[in-house]
Design goal:
The structure is a single chain. The chain is an all-alpha fold. The mean pLDDT is 81. Helices cover 57% and strands 0% of the residues. Among the domains are: 7-46; 63-98.
Amino acid sequence: MAKAYSEDLREKVISHIMSGCSKRETARVFNIGEATVYNWLRLHKEGSLSPKKRTDYPRKVDEQKLREYVAQNPDHTLKQIAAALGLKFQNVSKWLKRLKITRKKRQHFTKSATKKSGPNLKISLRK
């Protein structure tokens, strides 16, 4: 993940705008997006320019625990696995891909189900 811009840079951008330069020109001078400039101005009016703390760090998963849980509960959904292991279901999906564990539910066809569908039209026309 990309790091947040420093508070020092944010203060420089705000002071540059306060000195009379336009927001668009300031964005070009500091090589940042115009939307970023507007967001920082809004934060400045609210009182704090400090970046928000990131709370959604990728969590480490005990791979063996995940493998065992999936082996014991093959029918559980990603949400159920996530709730049992204390994770977000998106993280469970990523870790299952890393461990090359497929979760695809496949339809199982029986012989009687294929017989009920009737004869194949192409085969019957050839005879």
